[in-house]
Amino acid sequence: MLDPHATVPDLQAQRRQLRRVLRQRRRNLDPARQRQAARAVASHLQRQPELIRARRVAAYLACDGELDPAPLLTRIAARGCRIYFPVIADDSPLGVRFLPAPSGRGGWRRNRFGIREPAAGRALPAWQLDVLLMPLVGFDRDGHRLGMGGGYYDRLLADLARRVRRPRCIGLAHGCQQVESLPVADWDRNVEAIVTERGVIRTA
Fold first, then answer.
1. Yes or no: is domain 8-202 CATH 3.30.2090.10?
2. Which residues pair with 100 in a beta bridge?
3. Which of 10, 102, 191, 192 gives 20 to 30 Å between its CA and that of 45?
4. Given this model, what pLDDT does residue 112 score?
5. Residue 124 DSSP symbol
């Protein structure tokens, strides 16, 4: 049982354990279920007001069993929405910047984690995005999120919280990644909605 009042070292240990369990859980989904879940999430999301109005959306390239946003991105790109992806940037205070999706098969590179990212393009400040879609390792119904532990999205969400203009931040995950409650740290930032194949959970 996770202790929400644990000390920081205990909290980190709980999170590492939970990450291992939930990452394995999503990896265990067979390809057919992964594709089915991705299509269901696309159907849920494309009807949401944020996505209907959005002109600039940042997403990610799925790996390690993450919920794949590709079916949604294909649909919204077809109606003229501009798609951006995060790029690791050590020279940025947030450690990440957002570049437009390359137009062809070329134009990609792999970062130090082996994840593909755009190799070039004009960066867009995160606060100018309309929607930010982020992968989750775990989540609960209160909007608490568990990421991979790198802190990139935590820093980004903290910065966006101080902005007058900011994107709607939405977490994507498989339903099997939901837990009753997550151990929460002072630096954690919630997302405003979570979408799985089961539907949309509004948290703000």
1. no
2. 84
3. 102
4. 87
5. B
Enumerate the β-bridge partners of residue 133: 170
DSSP, residue by residue, 156-196: HHHHHHT-SS-PEEEEE--GGGB-S-----TT----SEEEE
| CA distance linking residue 36 with residue 44, whole number of Å | 12
Confidence at residue 3, expressed as pLDDT on a 0 to 100 scale: 47
Can you list the positions of beta strands (E) in 81-130?
Answer: 82-88, 96-100, 108-110, 116-118
Which position has the token pair 């004009």? Answer: 122
What is the C-alpha separation between 6 and 160, in angstroms, rounded? 28
How far is it, in rounded angstroms, from Cα 59 to Cα 190? 17
Residues of the chain with pLDDT below 70 are 1-9, 149, 186-188, 204
- Token pair for residue 203? 């948290």
pLDDT digits (tens, 9 = 90+) for 117-143: 998 899 999 999 999 999 999 998 888
Q: Please, which residues bridge with residue 33 across strands?
A: none
* pLDDT reported for residue 46: 93
Q: At 62, give phi and psi (nearest 5°).
A: -65, 140
Find the DSSP H helices in the chain. Answer: 8-27, 31-46, 49-53, 70-78, 152-161
For tokens 């919204």, the residue is 76
